[in-house]
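Let us practice reading a record.
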Amino acid sequence: MDNKKLGIVLIILGILAVSAIVFAKIKEDAYLQKIIENNDDSCYLDDGTCLHDERDFTIYYIGGFIAVILIILGVYFISTNKHQELLIEQHKEVSKALKEAKETDTFKAYLAGFNDEEQIVLKALKENEGIQQSTLRYKTGMSKTSLSLLLKKLEEKGIIARESYKKTNKIHLRQKF
């Protein structure tokens, strides 16, 4: 049972407890009033004791205390359910951000072993997986020849893979980041 349902049940039990206590108090007051009416509108009995002195309110105090505790616990469980949902959502966001940061850091460390031109090409490939060689040329601003030679060199090292596509090639990174 989740906290919200448990909280609602506790609040209902608390309200029922308050209702039972109020009902018992009203019933006892009506009973005393009936005795007073039968006793010529006097609360004193034949032995001289007052009906109001004999009353014990302890049961009402205990019942009221229990009812208030149930209601407070119900409200607490309902509010913690909302907080838990918020914490779960924040945890997911933090996990996602950490995963993205780790991927970025891993890729930056990977790029450190390459020269500037290779880094530009690899960054473009990471951003656009399966990019066409002609599009890659425009994104990097390199000439056809220098890009082709650079891609051949990276392919020989096993860093990228070229796949024939129509009259051009699609370029993929072999390692996923």
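A brief commentary: The mean pLDDT is 86.
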